[in-house]
Amino acid sequence: MSEGALPKQDAVLRVDDLQKSFGGLAATDHASFAVERGTITGLIGPNGAGKSTLFNLISGFYEPDGGTVEVNETDVTGMEPYQVADHGLIRTFQTPRKLEGMTVREAMLVGPRNQPGESFVKLFAAPGTVAERESTNLAEAERILEEFEIDHLATQPATDISGGQMKLVELARAMLAEPEVLLLDEPVAGVNPTLAKKLKDQIRRLNEQGTTFLLIEHDMEFVMDLADPIVVLDQGSVLTEGSPEEVRSDDRVIDAYLGGGT
Amino acid sequence: MSLLDGARGSLTELSRPERWVLGVSAAFALFLLAALLTGALGPTYFLFLVGLAGMYALLSFGLNAQWGFTGLINFSVAAFFGIGAYGSALMTADSSPIAGGFNPLVGLVVALVVAFVLALLIGIPTLRLRADYLAIASLGLAEVVRLIVLNERWLTNGSAGLRGIPSFFQGWPVLSTFPEAMPGLRLVVIPGSPILLETSFWQSLLNVMLVLTFAGVTYLVLRRAHRSPWGRVLRTIRSDEDLARALGKNTYSFKMQSFILGSLIMALAGVFYTHLNLYVGPGDLDPITTFYAWVAVILGGSGSNRGALFGGIVIVTIREGTRFLNDVALPIDPAPLRLLLIGVVIVAVMRYRPQGILPPQRELIWPSAVDGGGTPETPDSGVREQKGGGSNE
């Protein structure tokens, strides 16, 4: 049925026979695929195909009914989201999450993992280490904001920027967590064409620098231009997988999108 | 930044509400000073009020560390306060049915340990769940603790309460005999109404020093914690717990730390109360204390430590200030007015300033990191154009 289970040489993320049902409805139905290191893998499928469920399963927000998820050859099935993140898998959300009462750069500073300042004891026992890391993180946050050309927003309230800018900030913050594989849930949904292009350029640039991406996107033009390979999901399982050209010319994909599937 | 730091800076740097609070506080301080000098307000009673204000400030600090920082809804402030009060009273009081006679420092430690264990016990089942579950469980916990204290006579003396509680400094060198050792003073500021400073005054002064130490240390700890990466994770959890989890934060552990920290501070308030009042009874565990702490935190501005301090002082002012309404010939009994007045204050705050009087407003980044970071402080003039151009909404 799906060719996605083929072993791949260097998979940073491997999903095998993943299942999840909600009250008899199989939202994820024996889905298998792998994300190869260094790629931008697209995950597409019609509405209700189970893309977001799959994301939640991979990132630990849902516990699967069956199957496994491996990040970097480590089985992370059933782990808490923070543990999955600790193995190098970071995700973003479809709607940008707002951090009340924080400036953009404060919101950025939530990104880095395992900060010494996140230990209450170290705040008092080793304030020097805390301050040092905070300085490094702040400099890094500002460098990334600059690369994203949104450094002018650094001291703005994080809730006062536009939806598109929030998407950029979210991507920038995720980079601070130094992900090995970054899951983006509709990075350009509701984003104007100018910012969408900016996001695309950033994703491409970060990918060239070594970050692997898995992204859900409804904007076909965007995903066909950016992602390779593309995994097509329909009714909870992987319909097909391949380069944009292969996917585009696959009749089954067209059927799935037009609702002609049996 | 503390109120003090703000006052040291230029006045123009302060926001409007800050200047307003500063002005009202100064006027209130002058009023108190005048009342003290004219003998209208006894100095010992005044110090008792300061002690109470410190106690309420501690309670609001504790709740602020839970609700203000992390968004944890705790309706058992009175229970943790009571645990602190009873924990230390049972260790130190003559009439204690179980132990008694220990050094107050032992009482302090025991009270904190019991509060820690209780916070852990209530946190383990509820903090993994949505916020409302802690709210419900804590509501139940408050009643459970109160009823145990009321009914388990072998343990707590029941409704009779505990008497014979020593001062906190009993057994300490110098300080334990300090009130007796101090000479009685007679100050005449206004001829005809001398102010007497006797043993009870010095005792109250010691109590005030104690609560100022507790509150001061707590404030400094919370201030550092609030602006640290630790506090930032808590604030992220408050806004969006899923985001924190997705970024690799063990939110359960952070929530537990925040809950325990707040509970310990509330117990600290209870320990102080025991040695201030020298009597504790089951009535001290009434849910009204929880209510007062919530009002103080919301009034001051959730998440703001100085707001919690301000809120605590306002609560004591309303609670104790209304006693003087007895002197004014009013057609109604003023006692119920207290709650009414607090209700009016809450309605007014919610209507005109839902974020509280002194909400946290400054950027919270570890201070030396910002100073040393060489960061662009204010956005340049291109911000607005850029923002307009980049906005898609």
UniProtKB/TrEMBL annotation, chain A:
Probable component of a branched-chain amino-acid transport system. Keywords: Amino-acid transport, ATP-binding, Nucleotide-binding, Transport. Residues 13-260 form the ABC transporter domain. PROSITE patterns: ABC_TRANSPORTER_1, ABC_TRANSPORTER_2. GO terms for biological process: amino acid transport. GO terms for molecular function: ATP binding; ATP hydrolysis activity. PANTHER family: CONSERVED COMPONENT OF ABC TRANSPORTER FOR NATURAL AMINO ACIDS, CONSERVED COMPONENT OF ABC TRANSPORTER FOR NATURAL AMINO ACIDS-RELATED. One of its GO terms (cellular component) is plasma membrane. This is Probable branched-chain amino acid transport ATP-binding protein LivG. Belongs to the ABC transporter superfamily. Signal peptide: none annotated. Transmembrane segments: none annotated.
From TrEMBL, chain B:
Keywords: Cell membrane, Membrane, Transmembrane, Transmembrane helix. Pfam families: BPD_transp_2. It is a multi-pass membrane protein. The chain crosses the membrane at residues 20-39, 45-65, 72-93, 105-124, 131-149, 201-222, 259-279, 291-316. Residues 368-393 are annotated as: Disordered. GO terms for molecular function: branched-chain amino acid transmembrane transporter activity. InterPro entries: ABC_transp_permease (IPR001851), LivM-like (IPR043428). It comes from the Archaea. GO terms for cellular component: plasma membrane. It is found in: Cell membrane. This is Inner-membrane translocator. It comes from Halorubrum saccharovorum DSM 1137.
